[in-house]
Design the sequence.
């Protein structure tokens, strides 16, 4: 680092990025994973973070004294490797089917294609079952909020129920 200010700015950027990814990766994995693997994948993501911290501490002990700059450069090298692979395969980061079906988007066709791609389903029945799970879980989340007294709008809950019916019906039409 040429100056202390550059070092502070770079450390701030790295800290922000690692905090950001520590939160977003488990959320994304929870959104795209099947229900039976959600807990395992979330746990593995957190385990990967812990192993990364352990590796960083171990390398920090090796690169003491004047060699700390090499370790600092390794951080940038690993970031560039990740960016390279993301840019090389831009279609590998898919939107969440749950997100596509929520917030009034109702992009059923795209959600169906992503579910087919993620799960490797070959027939429409399997895709319909998965769509039904996604919609019913969002519907049960609204019911849970209502039972706790959070005051869910009954019209919104009715819209979600009607949307679930339309999504399942559209699977049989397509």
Sequence:
């Amino acid at each position: 680092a040429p100056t202390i200010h550059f070092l502070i700015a770079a450390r701030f950027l790295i800290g922000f990025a690692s905090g950001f990814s520590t939160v977003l990766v488990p959320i994304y994995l929870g959104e795209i994973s099947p229900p039976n693997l959600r807990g395992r994948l979330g746990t593995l993501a957190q385990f990967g973070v812990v192993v990364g911290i352990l590796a960083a501490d171990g390398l920090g002990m090796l690169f003491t004294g004047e060699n700390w700059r090499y370790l600092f450069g390794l951080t940038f090298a690993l970031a560039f490797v990740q960016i390279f692979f993301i840019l090389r395969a831009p279609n590998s980061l898919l939107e969440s089917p749950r997100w596509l079906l929520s917030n009034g988007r109702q992009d059923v066709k795209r959600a169906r294609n992503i579910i087919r791609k993620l799960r490797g389903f070959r027939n429409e029945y399997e895709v319909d079952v998965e769509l039904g799970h996604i919609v019913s879980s969002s519907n049960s989340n609204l019911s849970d909020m209502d039972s706790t007294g959070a005051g869910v709008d009954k019209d919104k809950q009715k819209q979600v129920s009607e949307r679930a019916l339309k999504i399942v019906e559209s699977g049989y039409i397509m």
